[in-house]
Write a structure and sequence with these properties.
With 344 residues, this protein is α/β, with parallel strands linked by helices. The chain folds into two domains: 229 residues, Zn peptidases (Aminopeptidase, 3-Layer(aba) Sandwich); 96 residues, Peptidase M42, domain 2 (Elongation Factor Tu (Ef-tu), domain 3), CATH 2.40.30. Helices cover 27% and strands 30% of the residues. It has eight helices and 18 strands. The strands form three sheets. Strands 1, 2, 3, 12, 13, 14, 15, 16 and 17 form a nine-stranded mixed β-sheet that branches. A hairpin with a 5-residue loop joins β6 and β7. The chain is globular and about 65 Å long. Bound molecules: zinc ion. The site of zinc ion has 6 residues, from α5.
């Protein structure tokens, strides 16, 4: 593992362990802010709570921006049931089946945290008919079972838990001997780690990127309003976001994907070509792919009217918005392509 990669994997694991469901991302943002400070990279927070760091470039050509999002899927408490279970609404797009039985943390407004699990109402195979345990999982048939002695609404309220409280699911991060990294929320924390790895590369080597480059850590991507406005003077942006590995897609866990089209828009053809050429000349494994149900901070920004060349690259990830998995080779390919672009 190259030095950069060890750093990327370590910081990825650290950030993955910090809960940051959409709407409640400050803890993770603070950690990343500290990382920029360690590297002496100037950084500011936007009013919305995102982070913008800047690496000064060698030329005064129009600036660039690389964006990765720190917000993750999660849930919000919607109702406390008579039996003390918590009905929740999802934050971001996922099926309840993907978090069934998963441990979670509830964050109260006064700063307390409680553990629980996301359970279907009819979980027990011994207590319910087969038809019951196989019921579809909907907002009304799954709930959080708190690990507290709660049997009614008042019991829950007395813990300080209320409607609107945030819920994060355990990421269960595992790095295997064979080089796979399995975790929830690799989307997009693996890419945040890659962005930090690229910063580390420039700081450690004392080199400057070809152009001034902003590193934008957005915090509402999963719910569709991540990067809306870019810093002044940006002419080119790359969203760092996962490639989709599944039957029928072209991505690979061992390569970086370059997005040619998502559900919002085709991507800038010339930019796709440029990135593919950078990958080819650097012997970086890459795949060009199209995503059928997908949006990135880049397609979001241009959809909001930003006048920039835009693209989206990211390591291929299997089972996205479920228990995700990628490979260290994919992360490395992502890092190498990002650095190659910043140096070009
Ligand atoms: Zn994402």
């Amino acid at each position: 593992m190259s030095c950069d990669m060890k750093y990327v994997v370590d910081i990825a694991q650290e950030i993955l362990a910090i809960p940051s469901p959409g709407g409640d991302t400050d803890r993770a943002v603070e950690r990343i802010e500290r990382e920029f400070a360690f590297m002496n990279i100037p950084c500011r927070r936007t009013a919305k709570g995102a982070l913008i760091a800047v690496l000064e470039g060698q030329s005064d050509l129009p600036a660039r921006c690389a964006v990765a999002h720190v917000d993750t899927l999660g849930a919000v408490v919607r109702r406390i049931e008579d039996d003390g279970r918590l009905r929740v609404l999802p934050t971001g797009g996922f099926g309840w089946g993907s978090v069934e039985g998963e441990n979670c943390t509830v964050f109260t407004l006064d700063g307390r945290t409680y553990s629980g699990s996301l359970m279907p109402d009819k979980a027990s195979r011994h207590a319910f008919h087969v038809e019951g345990t196989d019921d579809p999982r909907t907002d009304d048939t799954v709930a959080i079972r708190l690990d507290e002695d709660v049997n009614c609404v008042d019991d829950v309220v007395s813990l300080g838990i209320g409607v609107g409280d945030m819920v994060s699911f355990e990421p269960r991060t595992v790095v295997t001997q064979s080089g796979y990294i399995k975790s929830r929320h690799l989307d997009d924390k693996a890419c945040v780690a890659v962005a930090l790895g690229a910063c580390r590369h420039f700081v450690d080597s004392g080199k400057k990127p070809a152009r001034t480059t902003y590193i934008y850590i957005s915090n509402y991507e999963e719910v569709g309003h991540g990067t809306a406005r870019l810093p002044e003077g940006v002419g080119e942006m790359v969203a760092l976001d996962i490639g989709i590995v599944a039957k029928g897609t072209n991505s690979s866990e061992r390569a970086v994907s370059i997005c040619a089209r998502d559900s919002r828009t085709p991507y800038d053809r010339g930019f796709v070509k440029e990135l593919a050429q950078l990958a080819k000349s650097g012997s970086i494994p890459y795949r060009i792919d199209t995503y059928f149900r997908y949006g990135s901070d880049a397609s979001m920004a241009v959809g909001q009217g930003e006048d920039v060349r835009f693209s989206c690259i990211g390591m291929g990830v299997d089972a996205t918005h479920h228990y995700e998995r990628t490979h260290l080779e994919g992360i490395k390919a992502n890092l190498d392509l990002l650095v190659a672009w910043m140096e070009s």
